Amino acid sequence: MPMHPDSHRPKNILRWKKLHALFAVALVLQAALAAAELRIGIIGADTSHAPAFAKFINTPPANDPVEGVRVTSVFKTFSADMPLSANRVEGFMKRLLAMPGITAAASIEELAQNVDAIMILSADGRAHLDLARRVIPFRKPVFIDKPLASTYRDAVEIIRLAEQHGTPVFSASSLRYTLAKPALAKAAQTAKMGAIKGVFVWGPAAFEPRTPDLFWYGIHSVESLYAVMGAGCATVQRIHTDDTDIITGIWPDKRIGTIRGMRDTKSYFGLTLLGANAPLTENAASGYAPLVREIITFFKTGKPPVPYAETLEIMAFMEAAELSKQRNGAPVALDEILKP
Questions:
Q1: Structural domain boundaries, residue 248
Q2: Could you tell me if 224 and 323 lie in one domain?
Q3: Complete DSSP assignment for 210-233
Q4: Where in the numbering of this chain does the Gfo/Idh/MocA-like oxidoreductase N-terminal domain appear (predicted)?
Q5: Total structural domains in the chain?
Q6: pLDDT tens, residue by residue, 308-332
Q7: Of 149, 170, 191, which closes a domain?
Q8: Residues with Cβ < 8 Å from 303, sequence gap 6 or more?
Q9: Which residues does residue 272 pair with via DSSP β-bridges, in sequence order?
Q10: Residues in Cβ contact with 118 at an 8 Å cutoff, skipping those fewer than 6 apart
Q11: What is the pLDDT of residues 247-294, one digit of tens each?
């Protein structure tokens, strides 16, 4: 005798209850995984760094995986009086929003509220202080793309705010990690070099009329210089022509670091470490991966890999070089900039 269809109901109900329980567990696990994933928000979509950084984080190469982080939000900012900002922002924003999982925030505050870490990538250093003021109180790690600010005083204020709110801040050029650090690593494995007595750095130094000279592109070479020499420079002297700048820093222990900034050549970076016994020359590698990995580590640990004092002195060094140019190449003591 065939069974009535209702006779299967208890088994069906039990089966559905099990499936529901499994589904609920899956949702909990999914939520846990999502919670473990560090969400990054990008402010400033007017630079190629924005889509490049986001692509590396969200869709990394198979041989260079990135785990536990994801860019989830972007807020568009740009400078109307800077063509390289205003004319490119829509294209970069379109590329960002085409990436799965990235949405446009309605405000900076909304973005800061809904992420775990923040990248200020605005191409215009003049905007960085105002943007930093708005996000630092959220007490989430903040990476500020080079330059930290467009003046030394603005940079000091950013660091003051960071320390006041207990918000870790990090700023660096990619050349610190694709040029200076690899050179230093090779030097450490080459005992015959002896102590590093100085460095000669070269690279492009195009200007942007709305920012001080070196704050636009020369900062890459200045950052490479400081990655080798460290903070503590005493004087800066700059020889300037239309096509070239020679900027020399002298440290109290008599070490000398020199930058050749070029505007009449193709874009290439390099440096020579000057050892007591032998030199070592390195050409810059391409790509942002080493810098982005440093940013991710910073976001996870909250520990800036470059000391605030060094970051601020880089700003002061560039202002001192600007003063030296205005004074027809006269040496400028860094204390003139660093004094309160």
A1: 175-338
A2: yes
A3: TS-HIIIIIHHHHHHHHHHH-S--
A4: 97-170
A5: 2
A6: 999 999 999 999 999 999 999 999 9
A7: 170
A8: 168
A9: 200, 281
A10: 40, 41, 42, 43, 111, 112, 135, 138, 140, 141, 142, 143
A11: 999 999 999 999 999 999 998 999 999 999 999 999 999 999 999 999
